[in-house]
Amino acid sequence: MIEVHPFKRMVSELILYIMSLLTQTLERILVWLQANCPSVASFPYPGLTNEQIQELTKDLPFKLPREVKELYQWRNGTLHGQGFFPFSVFYSLEESLDFYYKTVKYQPDDTLLMASRNSLILFSTDKSFFFVVADEENNNTSQVWVVYTGDHPVICYTSLTNLILMMADCYESGAYYVGSSGFLEEGRTKSDSFFCKYHPGIENRPDLGLY
Fold it and tell me: Strands across the sheet with 128-133, in order?
């Protein structure tokens, strides 16, 4: 019997924990939406298999963080206009890769939208794009960056997993709620506390245009 080095076992267990935590938290959000705002709880594009993700990303010069892969194994984006509140769009992996190949890869450095050529957009609002920066390693997590139209990109969330945890807490606590108009809204005071909880040290809380 081959023995697994304790450190490798610890890393493997950490990876499994991160993956299960993210998926469980995404399911918490889905349950809340189905109960409270079913009109935007539709995620018509099923998650991708690991093999599909590998095939789609095989030509990238970087590797997707494991939490990004898990996001796309859960669901592969949403219909535009029926985003993943507080975002208006959750891009499919195909859309994100299309944006990368048409825009990020070929832009001159002095006009590059992103902070790095190893950037992959996940979400957007009317004002801004949210993306991760990857590298050649199989990292578990990645900070989430935001770039506003005509501005420089900055780090806005400590990781994708922490962003989703913050969103779940905001839904379940009433920081995100269904307003009198029937649309989802945000109570800034409550949501600020969850932002500080999950993203300590991040000064650039993004303006999502909700206030």
Answer: 89-90, 119-124, 128-133, 144-148, 154-157
Question: Any residues with CB less than 8 A from the CB of 10 and at least 6 apart, and which?
Answer: none
Looking at the predicted structure, is the pLDDT value of residue 60 above 70? yes
- Residue 188: Cβ within 10 Å count: 11
**Domain chopping of the chain, boundaries:** 6-198
Antiparallel, parallel or unpaired: β 128-133 and 176-178:
unpaired
User: Does the 6-198 domain belong in CATH 3.30.930.10?
Assistant: no
CA distances (Å), origin 141, targets 50, 186, 201: 17, 27, 17
Is a pLDDT exceeding 80 seen at residue 149? no
Model pTM above 0.90: no
CB atoms within 10 A of CB 113: 15
Percent of the chain residues topping a pLDDT of 90 = 45
Residue holding tokens 């390693």? 137
Neighbours of 40 (CB within 10 A): 19
From residue 38, alpha-carbon distances to 34, 73, 153, 180 in Å are: 4, 22, 33, 15
How much is the average pLDDT of 102-117?
57
